[in-house]
Design goal:
Number of strands: 9
Number of domains: 1
Structural class: alpha+beta
Distance between the termini: 7 Å
Shape: globular
Number of helices: 10
CATH class: Alpha Beta
Length: 281
C-alpha cells in the first residue's frame, strides 16, 4: 500500500511541469512564511530554492525590492567572469589596491568605496546589466553606483537597482551550478561570502550553531536584506533571498524566516511526500 501511494505521487509529479512541482510536505513551509509576512506591518519578500531538487518556495517572489549591497554578489561574479575570459586578473592593481583585496573588502566588510572602484573598472552599472541580460537573467536591475544610490533621494519602492526574490535566487543558483562561473571562481566567491562580517543577526541569527552559510547583506534606511546559501545537515543547499522594508524588527524577521526555511526543508526531505504517505493503511 505504501509503495502504491509513493508510485502515485511520483506519477503526479512527473506529469506536472517542473515549475508546478511542489512537494506536498513543503506546503506547510509556504503557509508559515505567508502567515509571517501577513502578520508584518512592513513589506517582505522571500524566496528559497533547493539547489538539488529545484523546489522553490516564495512569498511576494515577483515583487521588486532594493538590492542595496546584495548587488555586490553580481558585481563580484562579473569580475570573476572577466578574469576567466583573460581580460582581468585578481592580482591587477586598481587605485592602489589589488582586485583581490577590493573583492575581500566588498564582500566581507561591505566596503562601498571598494565596490565602486571595481564597478568603475568593469565599465559601470551598464556593463553588469548587459552581462545579466546576455545570460538571460531578468528581474534584476543595476542602474547606479553605490555612491550615486546613497546620494540620491531614496524611495524604497524605486525599481532602480532592484531585484525580485525569485530573480536573486536564480542568480545564486546560476553561480552555484557553474552556469556563470567555473568551479575555481565559484569556490573563490563562496569562500568570500562565507566570511561575511555584516548582518550576523540575519540569516545566521537563529540557525543551529555551525550551519554553513555563504551570504551578503544589504542595508538602507528602513530596509534590510540578506541573500545567500544555507547548507543543510544532509549536504542539501538552499539558496535564499530575504528582503524586508518598513518594519522595525527587520533583522529579527529575516532570522526567523531563515530558521523556518531551514526547518521546513529539513522536514520536507525527511518525509518528502508527507508522513501520511508512508503511514500504515
Amino acid at each position: 500500500m505504501r509503495f502504491t501511494r509513493l508510485m502515485l505521487w511520483l506519477l503526479v509529479l512527473m506529469a506536472q511541469p517542473a515549475s508546478a512541482q511542489t512537494l506536498p510536505s513543503l506546503q506547510s513551509l509556504r503557509q508559515q512564511l505567508t502567515a509571517m509576512v501577513g502578520a508584518s506591518s512592513g513589506d517582505v519578500g522571500i524566496a528559497a530554492l533547493d539547489l538539488r531538487s529545484g523546489e522553490l518556495i516564495s512569498v511576494q517572489g515577483d515583487e521588486p525590492f532594493p538590492m542595496a549591497s546584495t548587488v555586490k554578489v553580481a558585481i563580484a561574479a562579473n569580475y570573476l567572469a572577466q578574469v576567466e575570459a583573460g581580460r582581468r586578473s585578481l592580482s591587477d592593481t586598481i587605485r592602489g589596491r589589488t582586485a583581490s583585496r577590493l573583492m575581500e573588502a566588498m564582500l566581507i566588510h561591505s566596503d562601498n568605496a571598494a565596490t565602486d572602484i571595481l564597478l568603475r573598472d568593469l565599465g559601470g552599472p551598464r556593463t553588469i546589466q548587459h552581462w545579466l541580460t546576455q545570460n538571460e537573467l531578468s528581474g534584476l536591475r543595476i542602474d547606479r553606483s553605490i555612491a550615486q544610490l546613497l546620494s540620491d533621494r531614496r524611495d524604497l519602492r524605486d525599481v532602480r537597482d532592484s531585484s525580485t526574490p525569485r530573480a536573486m535566487v536564480e542568480l545564486l543558483q546560476r553561480i552555484d551550478s557553474g552556469r556563470l562561473l567555473r568551479p575555481a571562481s565559484r569556490s573563490y566567491l563562496l569562500g568570500l561570502m562565507s566570511r561575511c562580517m555584516t548582518g550576523r543577526n540575519r540569516i545566521r541569527g537563529l540557525l543551529p550553531m555551525g550551519t554553513p552559510v555563504e551570504h551578503k547583506t544589504g542595508t538602507l534606511t528602513g530596509y534590510t536584506s540578506d541573500v545567500g546559501f544555507i547548507t543543510m545537515p544532509d549536504g542539501r543547499r538552499i539558496a535564499v533571498a530575504l528582503f524586508a522594508r518598513g518594519r522595525d524588527d527587520r533583522p529579527r524577521l529575516i532570522a526567523r524566516a531563515a530558521r523556518v526555511i531551514y526547518d521546513g526543508f529539513a522536514a520536507a526531505f525527511r518525509y518528502p511526500f508527507g508522513a501520511a504517505a508512508f503511514a500504515s493503511p
